[in-house]
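Below sits my pick:
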Amino acid sequence: MMESNLINWTLDNIGSRQRNGLTPPRDMRETIAQIKALPPLPGSALRILNLIADPSADARRLADIIELDPLLTAQITRWASSALYGYRGQITTVHDAITRVLGFDFVLDLALGLAVLAPLKSPKEGQIGTRMFWTHALASTRMMAQLAAVMPAAGRPEPQALFLAGLMHNIGFPLLGHRFPDEFSYLSGLIKANPTLAIFNLETFAFGLNHAEIGAWLMNVWSMPRMITDIVYHHHNPCYRGENHQLNLLTFYSDCLLGRLGIGDAVNQVCPEEVPALLGLDEAVCLQILDSQNEELAKILATAEQLTD
């Protein structure tokens, strides 16, 4: 049953001043399909310029810089996966894009060109703002790697897949803020007025859709690898049992743990008791990892702040 404060807040705020511009477009898939390029988040251009001036620069260091930015990562991977280059394999990492398809010099120039474009104009503040997006992305990449290290080897995802899943699974939030600012503002108000309710449920209530769907539509438009699209779309669904279900379940569980620290959109998300066992994880060990993550939180927050300056 919906909590009374959500009902009251909604009734109080359905006035003529809020009706205009708050209804999502009739076909958001069509709207997203019309996006020709999404600029990366700030910070990438300076790092790439510094790398250009470094005579010891190599593909691995370039990939490390690009992978700090989920939107830039998606763009580079999309270029390498396009029919223009005729590569028949699957590209899931920036390093593969550089070494197997595009080449170092090309990606260096391409990444710089993309990085100097205007960033996504999504609000910085709030539970779904860009500061929290980056905080969550950085924490997720660390948490998922640490959890995977104590999983049984047979079910352990590849490190590159872990990184991309942790970095990109919430890409729907900055896209929502950039392309649909009225809806973003409306959702932010709902979240602030209802701090005990799950964000995923609030956005579904408000719009009949959620950031996972928005992000997955974007991944489909970009023809991203199936692994990325699956995680973006299903990361709030622990019952998903498709091709990439172990990675998806690990993403879900990582989000639940980080939610205990107040990080991300799973702050009020309920984690089924059986999830750690399904991953072959000892919950007590996972809680120890969470404690170590908490000790690193100040550094994560500082890095996220730099990325959103």
Observations:
- Confidence is low (pLDDT under 50) at residues 1-26.
- The longest helix spans residues 130-149.
- The two ends are 40 Å apart (CA to CA).
